[in-house]
Amino acid sequence: MTLISQDSTAAQILFSEAKRQQEGLELIPSENYVSPAVLEALAGPFINKYAEGYPGRRYYGGQAYTDAIEALAQERACELFRCEYANVQPLSGANANLAAYSAVLRPGDTVLGMDLSCGGHLTHGHPVTLSAQIYHFVRYGIADVTTGEIDYDALERLAQEHRPRLIIAGYSSYTRPLDYARFVAIAQQVGALTLADVSHLGGLIAGGALPNPLDAGFALLTTTTHKSLRGPRGAMILTRDAALAKQVNKAVFPGLQGGPHMHSIAALAVALGEALQPEFSDYAHQVLANAKAMERAFHTAGVSLVNGGTDNHMLLIDVTQHGIGLTGGQAEQALEGIGLTVNKNITPYDPRGPLDPSGIRLGTPAMTTRGMGEAAAARIAEMITLALRSPADTALQASLRAEVMALCARFPLPTGH
Ligand SMILES: Cc1ncc(COP(=O)(O)O)c(C=O)c1O
């Protein structure tokens, strides 16, 4: 029986969400659209299967094909990220980080992570998280809010003062390159391990558009699989070190999780297969080119970006400035009104705080998946500027909404919804 004939209430909600995605443009940098093949694998037979353990070492019977699909995902992850060991079971990025911490830390150990307001993720030590109750996090920030450069000398001093067991590099809202080699050098000085959380950048690294922190000597790499990597929701922990891999495996299962979501792992194997194709490298490079096109269009319109610009897929704007004069929340709502989805976001050392911040964050992975190039990216930046500078101009808003819908119709979702 089809969903619509069995449960029209639920079907109607799914239909409305599909329409929202088709007729609006997703500019949240952590979102993307999966391919029909990924979706097919996600809705496939592995949804029914328990598979506690790892390939060849399971707690339940009937594992011939779970082993095959998990091994395929592991092999493809290792090929893409040039490493020997991949745990593909974490259910999300937050779980992957907690598992990685518990693999290498004891309660009370000190960790250096990036401050939330400068771009670090909640799981890098924000006091509201469980990790922050278990471990002692010390936060580093950026030195210069006009360029976004991390103060590596201050980071080195913090490392010498606090002697962390682990140093984390990685972020959710930061737009400049990280000096991975410098992180590794600082960690070596104080005998710390290194973890790069590239949750946002996974697809850009896999596609060869950004450097791989493992090549710079990072011990552990965590990444979500559903952002730029364009797979199902989930995460991976990767390493080149056999002993660390063993610790990680134990930490994920049985340490933190029970049965892996084998349908997600199947879909991940398919997504990683896609990421190994040459077209995916083109995609990753286009994501960056589109972000640069948006940056140029914003600068032309007199809207300067937080950190002075972007070198990745993400752009941050302080919307209290630049002739806009809105809060992040108001800007998010104004853009939603014309069919552009962004998220309100804290800016470096934001005086307004995370619940009602000064900024918005936007990004190009999803629009690039729809096939949009630099011309569309530049026009989207212009539309954003117009909409934010005149949020009360209803005629303008209506014409921008119509333009966004027309653009979305020209670039349909890959799944055809
Ligand atoms: C850097 C970073 N780490 C971890 C996470 C957490 O991932 P998830 O939402 O899948 O738990 C995110 C997601 O926003 C992230 O940006």
Tell me what you see in this structure.
The protein is α/β, with parallel strands linked by helices and 417 residues long. It has two domains: 39-275, Type I PLP-dependent aspartate aminotransferase-like (Major domain) (Aspartate Aminotransferase, domain 2); 279-410, Alpha-Beta Complex (Aspartate Aminotransferase, domain 1). The chain has helices spanning 3-6, 8-23, 36-42, 64-81, 93-104, 130-134, 152-162, 180-190, 202-206, 242-256, 262-275, 278-300, 328-337, 365-369, 374-389, 394-410; strands spanning 25-26, 53-54, 57-58, 85-87, 110-114, 136-140, 166-170, 193-197, 220-224, 235-239, 314-318, 340-341, 343-345, 359-363. Strand 5 (110-114), helix 6 (130-134) and strand 6 form a beta-alpha-beta unit. Helix 3 (36-42) runs antiparallel to helix 11 and helix 7 (152-162) packs parallel to helix 8. The longest helix has 23 residues, at 278-300. It is globular. 51% of the residues are buried. Bound molecules: pyridoxal-5'-phosphate. The site of pyridoxal-5'-phosphate has 15 residues, from helix 5.
Return the string of H and E elements. HHEHEEHEHEHEHEHEHEEHHHEHEEEHHH
Determine the N-to-C terminus distance.
Answer: 20 Å
Runs with pLDDT <50, length 5+? none
**What would you call the shape?**
globular
Which ions, cofactors or small ligands are bound in this entry? pyridoxal-5'-phosphate
CATH class of the largest domain: Alpha Beta
Strand % is 5-15%
CATH superfamily of the largest domain: Type I PLP-dependent aspartate aminotransferase-like (Major domain)
Structural class: alpha/beta
**Number of domains as seen in the coordinates:** 2
Second-tier CATH architecture of the largest domain: 3-Layer(aba) Sandwich
User: Any idea what the radius of gyration is?
Assistant: 22 Å
Give the spatial strand order of the biggest sheet.
4-10-9-8-7-5-6
Task: Please state the average pLDDT score.
Answer: 96
Number of helices: 16
Biggest sheet overview: 7 strands, mixed
| Number of DSSP strand runs | 14
CATH topology of the largest domain: Aspartate Aminotransferase, domain 2
